[in-house]
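can u do me a favor
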């Protein structure tokens, strides 16, 4: 993610915080990004085609009414004026990170060789929530390279409870070394 996208996201978050609209702006920005993503023509015109700034503003104006979300509208106009509209997706990602930080939510990735049920994912989320003292939300991603168990990437750390790691620990222990504590 570019530093510029982070700067835009942090600025939008600060402005939305002044009006207590953090969650509303996140939802609206998500809808704008999804709307552009659903239309290959809109994506081409807004991101790649050498369309003038007034034309891009008019195109967005036809899809998003400025009075629906004035702050987001002004923000989108600034992006167009600065030729930065193509950064919308990374801006959304960085904005969500700001929102999660503000709400005390840690979002991580749960890697598993098989699909897990919502209840299993929730159980692991609660386990990590207790460890970290924050709400944890895990997103499942299948990793067919794992033989069994799971691996979690959370808050810049890796928690490895995979079968491969357990076998490595067992081998180290049998050879006289001390096992790693996860």
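np, heres the sequence
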């Amino acid at each position: 993610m570019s530093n510029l996208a982070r700067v835009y996201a942090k600025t939008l978050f600060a402005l939305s915080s002044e009006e207590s609209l953090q969650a509303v702006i996140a939802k609206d920005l998500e809808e704008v990004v999804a709307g552009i993503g659903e239309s290959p023509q809109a994506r081409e015109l807004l991101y790649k085609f050498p369309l003038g700034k007034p034309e891009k503003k008019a195109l967005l104006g036809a899809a998003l009414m400025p009075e629906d979300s004035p702050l987001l509208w002004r923000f989108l106009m600034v992006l167009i004026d600065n030729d930065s509209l193509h950064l919308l997706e990374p801006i959304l990602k960085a904005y969500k990170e700001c929102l999660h930080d503000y709400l005390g939510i840690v979002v991580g990735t749960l890697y598993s060789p098989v699909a897990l049920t919502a209840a299993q994912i929730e159980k692991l989320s609660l386990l990590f929530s207790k460890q970290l003292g924050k709400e944890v939300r895990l997103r499942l991603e299948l990793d067919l390279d794992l033989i069994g168990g799971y691996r979690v990437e959370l808050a810049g750390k890796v928690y490895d409870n995979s079968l491969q790691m357990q076998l490595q620990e067992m081998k180290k222990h049998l050879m006289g070394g001390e096992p790693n504590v996860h």
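The longest strand covers residues 105-112. hope that helps!!
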